[in-house]
Amino acid sequence: MIAFAVCSVLCLLGLSLAAIGMRDIRAASAIVYGASGVLCAGLVVVGLRVLATQADAESMRVPVGLPWLGAHLQIDALAAVFLVLLGTGGAAASLYAIGYGRHEHAPLRVLPFYPGFLGAMTLVVLAADAFTFLLSWEVMSLLSWAMVLTHHREEETRSAAYLYLVMASLGTMMLLLAFGLMAGAAGGYEFAAMREAERSPGVAALVLGLMMVGAGSKAGLVPLHVWLPVAHPAAPSHVSALMSGVMTKVAVYGFVRVAFDLLDPVVWWMSVPVIVAGAGTAVMGILFANVDADAKRILAYSTIENIGVIFAALGLALAFRANGMDVLAALALTAGLIHAMNHMLFKSLLFMVAGAVLTATGRQDLDALGGLIHRMPKTALLALVGVTAIAALPPLNGFVSEWLLFQAVLQSPNLTQPGLQFLVPAAGGLLALAAALAAACFVRFFGVIFLGRPRTNMARDAAETDRWSLAAMAGLALLCVLAGVVPGLLIDLIAPAIDLVLGARMPAQADNAWFTLVPVAEVQSSYSGFLVMVFVAISGGAAAAAVYRFSSRRTRRAPAWDCGFPDADPITQYGAGSFAQPIRRVMAPMIAARETVIMPPPGDMGPARHSVVTEDLAWTRLYLPLSALVGLAATRLNALQFLTIRRYLALVFASLILLLTGLTIWN
Amino acid sequence: MDGYAFDIAHLLSGSLVLVSFMMIYQDRIYALLNTFAMQAVVLALAVAWQAFIQGAPHLYATAAIALVFKAMIVPWALHRMVARMGIQRQVETVTGVVPTMLAGMGLVALSILLMLQLTAAAESALAREDLAFALSVILLGMLMMVTRRNAVTQVVGFMSLENGLILAAAGAQGMPLVVEISVAFSVLIAMIVIGVFLFRIRERFDSVDVETMGEFRGDRP
Prior knowledge:
The complex is a heterodimer.
Chain A: H1 2-21, H2 28-53, E1 58-62, E2 71-75, H3 77-100, H4 114-126, H5 130-148, H6 155-183, H7 191-196, H8 201-219, H9 228-234, H10 237-262, H11 271-291, H12 295-322, H13 326-361, H14 372-375, H15 377-390, H16 397-410, H17 418-450, H18 457-460, H19 467-485, H20 487-502, H21 529-550, H22 576-586, H23 588-591, E3 594-598, E4 609-613, H24 617-637, H25 645-666
Antiparallel strand pairs in A: 1-2, 3-4
Chain B: H1 2-24, H2 29-54, H3 58-85, H4 97-118, H5 125-147, H6 151-171, H7 178-197, H8 201-205, H9 210-214
């Protein structure tokens, strides 16, 4: 199995090189995307086989890299879960890109990086030593950076890419320190050696903190999220889908691998920052999604929210495990991993929808769209599945993972520490708020884009997207429904991974009647997505039949909303800003929203103006001062460029004396 | 024999440190050059003594190089150049002599503390003392380079630093390539002396004060 996975990685990397030479071939993008899709599907098969057969970990040592270390690769159940996730996301994005790539005006700017990016992400998941992990992590960051820069002529794209590069460097540096600490003085860089190593709780806490910054900056934990809403939308849509849907999950994988598999001991208080950061991220992310008016930025902010949910689940699992409640920890970790899987499905789907809308209309600001359900009915239907799933409505998959997470939250009275007993329900409250806001956000997303009347000519003249894109979206939508209706299969599938890292698993779900989920015990709670779907179908169908049967069948046409404005402009419709206003006003302090109204004086015929500014407090209060500080330090240190020889010597001399003195005191 | 050998080696290395201190308080260039020549002679003696007690004949070559090149040729050449080029004969210091001397004492204390700690596991007391003295000479040489403005005194400071390195290399028993190292350093010093004087920086800059050289660099804003 591992040989097959490694071959796929090599093929993907080789495909990157080959793509450079395909400059003159017309079908280059179809070839590259098609081959990437097939290889990704192969990875899914590998992952599924490892999970289904519950095979033991397979490892491999390739003699490349550091001479005394080599590259250690391993495929175990945890890696297999993420291989399935990555392969599914990659295959769908590749399928979509076969169609979408035709509309790109510069496809060659993406082609050489795309397969390599997939390959590097796979390698991160397969890596079994720190060096291979960090190297592939860096390749992943760099290649995705190159794809963010695709539309490099736009100033905003360039600054987004720069910000991404800075944040990626910060993250990798933290990972480097974390792995260095775990390897210890002996320098055991293989994961197997790290698992065995002994370390004090203080060191373990430091490693966990570094991992939160390192993996969190890639995944989008607040306040390390600032690059995500600018960089993800800047890339072409299939790349946005991969970055949001898959790359953030690779970061989650890194955190899970370290926090649950390699790191020991984890004491209960170490879970507190993870839970707090997760719940806070969820609320902040979805708040910004609610007030933003750009389709792809909304999706990127929603990614931040979902990452928050996942991290909250991981933190909860850490807390349960530290208390020795392995089955409950398995419940929380399952919720986290299933949510990661679900988020990959619906976020990729929604980014593809945004891409299809962008291709059809050329616009991605909500206030330029509207009424697309008439022009793009198939896309609209698939988008409806996606937004229902992401808004966590039953019977779709988003509900399953959030429900599992809340089941875990409800078990918090079993925790022995009063601090956690207090914190976890509070975090649960925040998560509930985030879920409600997510529903509001995606009502707005779908309503403004697809319903009502077109707000611009571009939206009026839109046409349905191509078949490849529709096929990819339909596949993801189908998986969303399946994962929602028969979640037990998915839970049983990833159970070996949970067992691997926790030594416990959730009760098997396959034998429950009606595909019912029973996370703890039947007397406490159970949920059957299948029955809910049947109920929704029957009641919805009956209601529709009743309406058609008992209402007048004749279609009547009458002026809509004809309250004194017979020729109402489409711009007077309830728009993105209208949806956002109540939430923006209520949450104004958190997003620093300011409204200004400029009224013309009486007698003046000029229009009144209303403007709204929101700002990301993390950006203005943390990043701008920090960058000002760095700039100031750089200016001051510039003086060091213009010293005399004697002063340079004096600097060298002073540092030498300082080091020698330090050495003396140390001894 | 052992105690006797140790005492003489100790005396010679200690004298080297003493001469380094003497170099710090010279305020005339000629006197400084003479003191440097004296330091080279002491170094030659110390290395020769090491050659004798270690029974390592190749160290005699190092001693000879020190004696001929550093105690005679270089001081003589510098004398001639200073005289012919009319370089200011006063040594321009950055700080006063007394603070410099105090700093020098601190450096000696630091190097002895450090070296005696680090080499606590070594058996030979001789090598330990020798290393401590050598580090003192190196640090004093650097101190001199840092606290003198004049290019000639900086060259002298560098050569004194290098004397400390040779002392360390000779004192450590069984250190390979000692002779080669000393030859290489001698060549390096010759290049620096040539660099300072053959290219006549005095004619271009009207001084061999290195502070003034900085003003002629193009990159100053």
